């Protein structure tokens, strides 16, 4: 595959996040992330056993993240409303010491996942069908499920770094 044909991903993992995902996969089976709107614990990506968090029409699948040593990719979901605010950013899942949400699988480990973000480059934005600078219409995420879920009260954040 040539460099021009390489699939650009909206989401990446740091080596530390990948190590923690391997540990969590060993303990809990297949995994998924969900990023909601930004208030409460929703400002951090939440890690669940795959399928434990019900996704639907109000969620989009941004990436299926390959993790070395894990048999299946880890889906990264975001609320559709949040995605509209963040569609021009590249997200990197990282891990830091501290206690995250009690609902996210890493909480007992004394670690928490967090997102680091940057604007998409013009080349990345074009590759993702977002237009120059990552703004405007385009292909968007990988898919959006047809099932319906209720919106979270935490889905009103203004974007990365806001609560």
Please provide a brief summary of the model.
17% of the residues lie in helices and 28% in strands. With 163 residues, it is an alpha/beta fold.
Question: What would you note in describing this structure?
Answer:
The protein is of the alpha/beta class and 163 residues long. The chain is built from three helices and eight strands, in the order βαββββαββαβ. It has a five-stranded mixed beta sheet with strand order 3-2-5-4-8. A three-stranded mixed beta sheet has the order 1-6-7. Strand 4 and strand 5 form a beta hairpin. The chain is globular and about 40 Å long. The N terminus and C terminus are likely disordered.
Fraction of residues in H or I helices: 10-25%
Query: What is the mean pLDDT?
Result: 79
| Strand proportion | 25-35%
Instruction: Describe the largest sheet.
Output: 5 strands, mixed
Structural class: alpha/beta
Count of helical segments?
A: 3
Low-confidence stretches: 1-5, 133-139, 142-163
